[in-house]
Each structure stands twice: as structure tokens, then as C-alpha cells.
Design brief:
62 residues; mainly alpha; 3 helices; flat; transmembrane helix; transmembrane; membrane
Amino acid sequence: MGLSISAAALLAIIVVVLGKGGHVRFGPALTCTLFGFTLAATGLAPAINTGLAALAGLLASF
């Protein structure tokens, strides 16, 4: 049985862990989050989603 987790949830967990560990401060994490939301509203979003889906398929094949 495979475990499926969305990329957004996985990245959110990574940001929280890095923030709690003191590796990333609140300001830069918030800036990157806002940049991600802004980027998702552009015409580049479908290409990014396609690339992430291809990467997930590649990783799943291992």
C-alpha cells in the first residue's frame, strides 16, 4: 500500500519543521509562501504542476 500526500502538504510540513528548528526565520518563510501563492496565479502554474507531476511519477517508479 502506497502513501499519498500532496506536494503542498509535504512542503508545509518541511517549512514548519525548518521554522521550529531555527533554520528558517518567520520573515523569509512568509515571503516564500506569499511568492508561491503569487506564482500559482500566473500563467506559469500549469508548467510547474506538470513538472511536479513528472517528478512524482519518476520518484514513484523507484
